[in-house]
Amino acid sequence: MTASALDLGLARKVLADQPFSVLLGARLEVFEPGRAVLALDLDGRLQQQNGFAHGGVLAYAADNAITFAAGTVLGPAVLTGGMTISYVRPATGATLEAEATVASSGRRQAVCRCDLYAVAADGARTLCAVAQGTVLTAG
Amino acid sequence: MTASALDLGLARKVLADQPFSVLLGARLEVFEPGRAVLALDLDGRLQQQNGFAHGGVLAYAADNAITFAAGTVLGPAVLTGGMTISYVRPATGATLEAEATVASSGRRQAVCRCDLYAVAADGARTLCAVAQGTVLTAG
Amino acid sequence: MTASALDLGLARKVLADQPFSVLLGARLEVFEPGRAVLALDLDGRLQQQNGFAHGGVLAYAADNAITFAAGTVLGPAVLTGGMTISYVRPATGATLEAEATVASSGRRQAVCRCDLYAVAADGARTLCAVAQGTVLTAG
Amino acid sequence: MTASALDLGLARKVLADQPFSVLLGARLEVFEPGRAVLALDLDGRLQQQNGFAHGGVLAYAADNAITFAAGTVLGPAVLTGGMTISYVRPATGATLEAEATVASSGRRQAVCRCDLYAVAADGARTLCAVAQGTVLTAG
Predict the structure, then answer these.
(1) Phi and psi for B27 in degrees, rounded to 5?
(2) Chain D residues lying within 8 Å of C80, measured CB to CB
(3) Can you tell me the distance from the alpha carbon of C88 to that of C128, in angstroms, rounded to the nearest whole number?
């Protein structure tokens, strides 16, 4: 693992180079060995028909947080192989936080878990989805 | 299953009521018993840092196509319980198509599968992800 | 893909070399390009507390059928990376059949789907679980 | 949640009523609020062709540990809806331990995570699989 792999500034630059993440307003809040936290404001554009965050927004956040968490141990050249997400509560509030941690890593892949929280304006956090994903080294 | 559950126009209205789907430009192309196809143009806003569609876009499309496919057998009041997606090839091309079919349905839930294709300007289709999800009746 | 990779006799020998598969009485019924079918008799030893086949039996059958299906395209040196199974109905009957097909394959991995059927003495088949898994080339 | 739902003796009786768990020699070592640990000896009967524990054994252990962990919060009448398992290292050693914890629980379902460890004769533990599953209340 190189120093650059664990550089928050560099990781934020990768995120800024993802037009879809920019469209959704995603921010990388934590990028440290074995852990990454991605956050985005739950503005009206991200909702489904009942006023909650769309499941696809949560799936995006889980996918990306898992990929960045894996990047902290595998380096920047990674491909996400797949992901499982279980939705447990409707997501509503000011912010969505996706906190991913590396459960296992090897030479060729890392498996990460992710908790997704809806955060209210007063800071109260509600777990709204739980995910697990596999990230492979590229090439 | 009511007639309205299988009405393409009604289903398109649900999609139009999802601000996130509108933001991504999703279209419902098929909505028939046991099957739904969702499509969206792969414009630059939906890319990651290497010019491919972001994995989160594929996850959104799988999640939503699976939910609509389940809706064709469970009716409109459904909650997606969870989803698994395996990414198999980078998605690039003009359009993304997510084709979901009901593999099993009961009183309380449906399990659906989804194939995600990148479609080139000349119509060539490349499978880029494979998904499976569970949808529950609400309430 | 070598001819041997598609040899039913050779694949049956691999299965016979798996003590756990022998313990469960698994049989390989089909092993052809892109498809494998594994079957086992649902005798009393394989039940849970309510007289149905234990979920772990279905998970075993899905895992192994998926691995063999991938072996038809990737060759014999494979590692199963992971699997998702959705249980849809209690499995009861004379036989369990796990039918796996390759949904996508590349140089490095294959993604397979699997349908699990409980087969009654009169031949009636009931879908009881639906699975998806990823198999990697070893080494 | 009733007292009986959290009774280790009662939970062990359920396990003893599962012929498949008896066949595999599974033991329930922990059954406390939000957590269950299932263990089994990795004897030769449980191996695949390379001398490691068969992936199906790990899938069984994950499935059952997840179901018992959910039972600590949902009560005994539960159905496992589905499970995802990622295999990260070959499992070899004296014992397999599946430690499941409840990540989220509600009225209708619980989502649990499970770590699977191979435990050597000297007590060294190696993480060999990571799982996540959803358990529904029956009826």
Answers:
(1) -125, 140
(2) 55, 87
(3) 5
ipTM of the complex: 0.94
pTM for the model: 0.95
Alpha-carbon distance of C132 to B132, in angstroms, equals: 7
In the numeric block, which tokens belong to residue B95? 């359009």
Reference D61, options A132, C80, C56; nearest CA is: C56
The pLDDT-based confidence of D1 (bands split at 50, 70, 90) is very low
- Identity of the residue in A23, A47, A56 whose CB atom sits nearest the CB atom of B59: A56
Residue A92, judged by CB atoms within 10 A of its CB (0-12, 13-18, 19+), counts as: middle
Residue of C85, C89, C101, C104 to mutate, interface with B, max B Cβ within 10 Å: C104
d(CA A72, CA C93): 49
A88 touches chain D (CB under 8 A): yes
C73-128 confidence digits (pLDDT tens): 999 899 999 999 999 999 999 999 999 999 999 988 999 999 999 999 999 999 99
Distance CA A88, CA A114 (A): 13
Q: How many interchain CB pairs under 8 A, A with D? A: 47
How does the average pLDDT of chain D come out, rounded? 94
Tokens of C15: 């299965």
Ordered domains of chain C (ranges, CATH): 3-137 (3.10.129.10)
Task: Tell me which chain B residues have a C-beta less than 8 angstroms from the C-beta of D81.
Answer: 81, 109, 134
- Percent helix, strand and coil across chain D, each to the nearest 5: 30, 45, 25
> Using CA atoms, how far apart are residues D106 and A86, in angstroms rounded to an integer?
13
Mean pLDDT, to the nearest integer, of A75-100? Answer: 96
What percent of chain D shows pLDDT beyond 90? 91
